[in-house]
Amino acid sequence: MPEKDDRSGKPERSAIARGLPRAVGGALIFSLPMLMTMELWWLGFYLDRFRLTLLLVITIPLLVFLSRHSGFERTLRLRDDLRDAFIAYGIGILTSLVILVVFGLLTVAMPLDEIAGKVAIQAVPASIGALLGRSQLGGDRSRASRKSEERNYFSELFLMGVGALFLSLNMAPTEEMILISYKMTEWHGIALVLLSILLMHGFVFAMQFKNEPSLPEGTPWWSAFARFTLTGYVLALLISLFILWIFGRTDGLALAPMVMAVIVLGFPAAIGAAAARLIV
């Protein structure tokens, strides 16, 4: 944590202020694909409010844990992580609101419930981007390195979950996800599962992750395969199922089409999970 002046605390406030522009940049980078997706505009209008609230409630602890790895500054206390999480959430909400207004997607004639729904959905990826923007867009690399040294196996799985959540949030609302799943046969589904696992395992070894504390040199391939590849893929599938349910994509589906839809969304989710351990 930056040294704090006993009289004014200016260094701490200055560190946060320097991180805010990067946070806004991260929010834009992460949220623009969803801000410019028609299905997301409509979801803000008709999505079941219980499911939307559940998504927003889950986002808070997600941001708190993410702050531990890539917040606005190095944190040691829970209250600091909570502060970073709520700052990121605020930036996500404000950024989404401004862009949606500029795009002409929010007007004063709209019901308040519709405006709140549209902004709330977009604020989830924007807030994740706001937190990651601090470390990825020119932040303190030595601080990021110290945080990577603190990671353990469960924090690695958490970061994989964040990556899976981000890409699945972008893909799940689109009609193409369901259309692809209807066009695929069972053999296509099996092939996609194998391809997803193969690509995830390629990330584990071929990319040679930097500062990887959970995968020391000399680790047997089967150990890494079981601990990261298979576990990460199952995590990606579970997150895909959850997001499809949140967005109402599983409503009325029989078991077989639902499984196929999860496998289809699990492909980008798996890529996001594997890539997250490289870039976060």
Order of helices and strands: HHHHHHHHHHH
Judging from the principal axes of the Cα atoms, what is the shape? Answer: flat
- Overall SS class: mainly alpha
| Most strands sheet | none
Kindly state the number of beta strands.
0
The residue ranges in which pLDDT falls below 50 over 5 or more consecutive positions are 1-8
Q: Give the number of helices.
A: 11
Terminal residue distance: 19 Å
Our Rg estimate from Cα atoms comes to 20 Å
Count of discrete domains: 2
Mean pLDDT: 80
Helix content: over 70%
Residue share in β-strands: under 5%
Outline the secondary-structure elements.
Blueprint: H1 10-35, H2 38-46, H3 49-70, H4 78-102, H5 112-136, H6 141-149, H7 153-171, H8 175-183, H9 186-206, H10 221-246, H11 255-279
Brief synopsis:
The chain has 280 residues and is mostly helical. It contains eleven helices and no strands. The protein has helices at 10-35, 38-46, 49-70, 78-102, 112-136, 141-149, 153-171, 175-183, 186-206, 221-246, 255-279.
Give the tags.
280 residues; mainly alpha; 11 helices; 77% helix; disordered N terminus
Question: In words, what does this structure look like?
Answer:
- With 280 residues, this protein is an all-alpha fold.
- It has two domains: 1-149, no CATH class; 151-280, no CATH class.
- It contains eleven helices and no strands.
- It has helices at residues 10-35, 38-46, 49-70, 78-102, 112-136, 141-149, 153-171, 175-183, 186-206, 221-246, 255-279.
- The longest helix is centred in the N-terminal third of the chain and has 26 residues, at 10-35.
- The two termini are 19 Å apart.
- Mean pLDDT is 80; it is low at 1-8.
